């Protein structure tokens, strides 16, 4: 009887968070919910993405984007946050780097804010509550547009 060892590479695939150069895609998570940041971190890391940093509000998110901009591939940004909401933070990030890839995250019922963010330059969106497959689908689709 043959064992799994007899079929090297069977069911093995490159994690989606690893680029063609073998390096992980790098992400900044901006969300005021500790639960959401932990959930996103777990989902992304499970596919090989590197979470470079986490910010708890839009103001901190812009600061951390500027700090890490040369090594970021993607930003996930909550729409509704204290100090500076996601739409204003998105605009500030795009002023720093017009090519920045930002995915907005919003609760159900915030379609107008999501639409505004897409018009202002966000590349994609994810709706809460987070679903692992949907998160990965949107993140990967956005990354593949590099």
Helical fraction: 25-40%
Please report the number of helical segments: 5
| Strand-residue proportion | 15-25%
Say which CATH homologous superfamily is assigned. Answer: Response regulator
Q: Identify the CATH architecture.
A: 3-Layer(aba) Sandwich
Sum this structure up briefly:
The protein has helices at residues 34-46, 58-68, 86-96, 111-120, 132-143; strands at 26-30, 50-55, 74-78, 102-107, 124-128. It has 146 residues and is of the alpha/beta class.
List the helices and strands and how they pair.
Elements: E1 26-30, H1 34-46, E2 50-55, H2 58-68, E3 74-78, H3 86-96, E4 102-107, H4 111-120, E5 124-128, H5 132-143
Parallel strand pairs: 1-2, 1-3, 3-4, 4-5
Helix pairs in contact: 2-3, 3-4
Structure overview:
- This protein has 146 residues and is an alpha/beta fold.
- It has a single domain (23-143), classed as Response regulator (Rossmann fold, 3-Layer(aba) Sandwich), CATH 3.40.50.2300.
- The chain contains five helices and five strands.
- It has a five-stranded parallel sheet with strand order 2-1-3-4-5, with helices on both faces.
- Strand 4 (102-107), helix 4 (111-120) and strand 5 (124-128) form a beta-alpha-beta unit.
- The chain is globular.
- The model has no long low-confidence stretch (mean pLDDT 90).
């Amino acid at each position: 009887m043959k064992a799994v060892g007899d079929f090297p590479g069977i069911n093995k695939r490159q994690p989606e968070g690893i680029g063609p150069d073998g390096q992980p895609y790098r992400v900044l998570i901006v969300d005021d919910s500790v639960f959401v940041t932990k959930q996103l971190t777990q989902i992304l890391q499970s596919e090989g993405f590197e979470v470079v940093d986490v910010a708890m509000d839009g103001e901190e998110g812009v600061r951390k984007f500027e700090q890490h901009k040369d090594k970021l591939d993607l930003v996930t940004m909550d729409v509704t946050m204290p100090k500076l909401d996601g739409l204003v933070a998105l605009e500030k990030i795009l002023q720093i780097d017009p090519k920045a890839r930002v995915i907005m995250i919003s609760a159900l019922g915030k379609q107008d804010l999501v639409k505004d963010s897409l018009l202002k330059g966000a590349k994609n969106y994810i709706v809460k509550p987070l679903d692992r497959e949907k998160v990965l689908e949107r993140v990967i689709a956005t990354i593949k547009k590099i």
